[in-house]
Prior knowledge:
The chain is of the alpha/beta class and 244 residues long. Helix content is 58%, strand content 10%. It has a domain at 4-40 and 113-243: P-loop containing nucleotide triphosphate hydrolases (Rossmann fold, 3-Layer(aba) Sandwich). The chain has a 5-stranded parallel beta sheet, with helices on both faces. Helix 3 packs antiparallel against helix 4 (89-108). The chain is globular, with a radius of gyration of 17 Å.
Amino acid sequence: xxxxxxxxxxxxxxxxxxxxxxxxxxxxxxxxxxxxxxxxxxxxxxxxxxxxxxxxxxxxxxxxxxxxxxxxxxxxxxxxxxxxxxxxxxxxxxxxxxxxxxxxxxxxxxxxxxxxxxxxxxxxxxxxxxxxxxxxxxxxxxxxxxxxxxxxxxxxxxxxxxxxxxxxxxxxxxxxxxxxxxxxxxxxxxxxxxxxxxxxxxxxxxxxxxxxxxxxxxxxxxxxxxxxxxxxxxxxxxxxxxxx
Length: 244
C-alpha cells in the first residue's frame, strides 16, 4: 500500500513544522512509519552553493524527470508561474523547486512508509510562487495546477491559519534569519504577510476538491497540544479509510 501524503500549509510563523513534529511523535508511538521533510534537507536546490556538482546534477535530473513524467502538471505550473506578475528569476526558481519536490515525493510514494508528513509540500510551493508578485487575474491557471496535484498526489491538507501579526511576532523571535520577512520592518512584514495570507484563502477556496481526499483547518493561535489532538485522529481515520 502506498503511503498517505499529509501536507501542512500556512504562513511562515504559523507553527507548521512544530505541530508536524509533535504529530509525528504521537503517530510514531502509535506504530506508524512516518517520513517528514522537516527532519531531512532534501532535495538540494540547484541554485544553492552547497552540495557539490553531483548533488546539483541529481537535482537537475529530478526536475527533468518530473517535466517528462508529469508534463501536463509541469506545463500548468509553468503557465501559472508565467502569469504571476512580474515574471522573474525568483518565481522561475520556485517553479523549478516545485517540480523537483514532486519528483522526490513520487520516489517516496514507492517506499514502505505509512505516512509522508510534509510541512513544506507542493501546495506551499505554489504559495511561494504566488508571493513573488501579483496573482493572475484569471483563476484557471491555479485551478488547473491544483487539479493536477490532486490527481497525482491526493494530499490530505491541514491549513494552519494564523493572523499576520502573530506570524510576524513569531518570525521576529526566531534565533536565526530564515526568511525575507526577518529583514523587513514590522509594519512592512505584517502588510506582506496579510497579503500573502489571502493566497491560502484562494487556494482553499478553489480547491473544494480537497474535501474528497480530506481537509482540516486549525488555528495556529491556539495551543499546539490542542491542534495535535485534532490532527492525529484525523490522520488515523484517513489512513484507515485509505487501507479499506
